Amino acid sequence: MVLRMKKTSMHLFEEMNLLLQQLTNQAYGQSLAVLNGNSIGKHFRHILELFEALLKGNALGTLNYEDRKRDVELENSIAAFRERLASMVEEIQTLNLTKKMHLQQYFNGQLIEIETSVQRELLYNIEHCIHHLAIIRIGIEQHFPHIILSEQFGVAHTTLRYRESIQA
Questions:
Q1: Which of 121, 84, 122 is nearest to 4 (CA)?
Q2: pLDDT value at position 107?
Q3: Pairing of β 110-117 and β 62-63
Q4: Could you tell me which of 106, 161, 156, 113 has the C-alpha nearest to residue 133?
Q5: If we measure between CA atoms, which residue out of 28, 27, 74, 17 comes closest to residue 49?
Q6: Which residues does residue 105 pair with via DSSP β-bridges, in sequence order?
């Protein structure tokens, strides 16, 4: 299971890269009405920065998803995004998923801290990534119908398993 989570992360990054190969910087950073004025680039930045927060939390022993830079360059430059993504890949592959850490988050105006693990947070990031890819898929289908996405792009693993079970 541990290896599968890392492979799934890598597969999602590959799916993102395949999409990026078909986009221009203009399309990547374009504000889309169907995405409530957000761009594909903003969603990609958000995905990347949460994975980076996990890596930072792994190093520190304390994870806080709210404590991130929100680097606008990642929203507008495919090259900048791809460079940061590539630098993160090896780190994710070497994560010790059984390592415990603390998750800090503001809840009802108060900072709370709970125990978690790298494995749990990698799973969260995978699910979070798929959720945003589903949103990105809507933007692509509405504004860039010439772009080709795999059938699995932005589809949850549980949905894929369900689809397979009803086809069997």
A1: 122
A2: 93
A3: unpaired
A4: 156
A5: 74
A6: 112
